[in-house]
Amino acid sequence: MSNRPAGAMHSALPAEVAEELSALRREVALYHAVLRALPQSAVLVYDQELRCVTVGGETMRMLAPDASSAAGQSVRELIPEAQRAAEVARYEATLRGETMSGDSFHEAHVLTSRYVPLRDEADHIIGGMVVSRIVTDEREETKRRELYQAIVEQSPYAITATDAYRKIVMLNRANATMLGYASTDDLLGQDGISITGSESLEQVDQEIGPSLMAHGVWHGLIQARRQDGSKFWSNQTIQNLVNAAGEYLGTVAFAKDISTELAAREEREQLVTNLTERERELRIFKELVDRAPDGVAFGNAGSLFPDYVNAAFRTITGYGETALNRTYVEMFGPNALAMMERDATPEIFEQGYWSNRMPAQRPDGSTWLCHNTCYFFQTPDSEEAQWVAFYRDVTEQVRSEQQQRELQEQIIAAQDAALRELSTPLIPITDGVVAMPLIGSIDSKRAQLVIETLLSGVAKTRANTAIIDITGVSVVDTQVANALLRAAQSIKLLGANAILTGIRPEVAQTLIGLGVDLSGISTCATLQSGIAEALNRGSDTNRSGRGIPGSRSVSYP
User: Fold this and answer.
1) Which domains, from first to last, does the chain contain?
2) Beta 308-309 vs 217-225: how paired, if at all?
């Protein structure tokens, strides 16, 4: 324990407090001095009640010379009414612990501000601070840079800037596109000359470089190379870049791909060069049309008079040199005009042309068949549509085609007769006996053919027995069974008997299932047994059929 009297210790406390208070005042004064001297900035400190604690900064003294007297006032009173709501909201946000940035305006100045909360040693928010800086010039400079950049980027010309060592330091999108690169980044840092290809190096050394050294500018054509290796011509202006002191900084080049213009110019020159050739070709074409074997005519769509007819037209129509003075009706008749109006014109508008045959008559009264093909067209120097038609005399062709058709019909008839014989063959076995082996399917047409062939054959050969063999018939149904019955009944009217052979077990079962009545018809299992049955009938008046395997007889009334 200290030997100092209690009273002496008590008397020393005010001095320590006074010293501490004095140090605190000096510290606060130092803080205020720092705030007031803060360069190029404006500072405002406020408490939790949004009362101004202190203001300072070089910028604050410039913007608000009387701001030093604002201590103790509400920040609302210090903010212009137009910006008050937005600014107060930011101040209040800092008291909730938020930190933010924003722009504001003070007369002609643009301010960018930082809003931060102030905390004590226990991390309690005790106020907030706003630090502002004038950025009017910076924003204007930014706008200018953006404007310059927009001009460069949106320029139709390819722009390239190189430094003193010919390295590309800036280029616009048009340049990258012209050279076939996907991005400008692919070209930055490259040699400004070499990227255009080796073709331009000699030109740079002998022409461009000396002009830049002597005059500071060069203008002309350069053959360049794209990234894919394809060549093109560009119209370029290259100019030296110097600073205010006249020091060389590099070059800027303005270029435009004129390959299309050059191609168009060459095309125009080629067109002029080919004009005489075209005229010669036109004369040749006219000569070919005049000598064409088919008739050709054309004229105005609103007129029935042709404007041109070739020699063949004059010949095949029979009107000769008077054809140009004759209307369409006079040369081809009113029926032809009606056909054109009814059929040709709608079809031309629908599919672009019309082609058909129509009868015609010559002045001498002879008739001929005309094949007419007609188009509508319009020339660049005419507002009205034109028609062109091609005429061919197909009289002999049609006559020949008719003869050919008649010959074909005769051939077809002969072939049909041969096929009829093959499909229903009638084979003589012996005197009085014929056989018809059937193969394949039997439809109604072939069934009628079977009956006709049997009747004709029995009558012609005077046969008394006809054998119908169905061994080769693939399907026996009601239609086939009825056809066989009709055939047997038909030849019975001529006094002949029918023997049905080729009755397989499945066929017999089918006939029974169909309920077909075969009474009156002899049946045998095979063609051989049927022939034997027929021959036996010829030698034995007793037609019982006994002793012939696989056969049976049916008595006739």
Assistant:
1) 17-136 (3.30.450.20), 155-257 (3.30.450.20), 291-398 (3.30.450.20), 424-539 (3.30.750.24)
2) unpaired
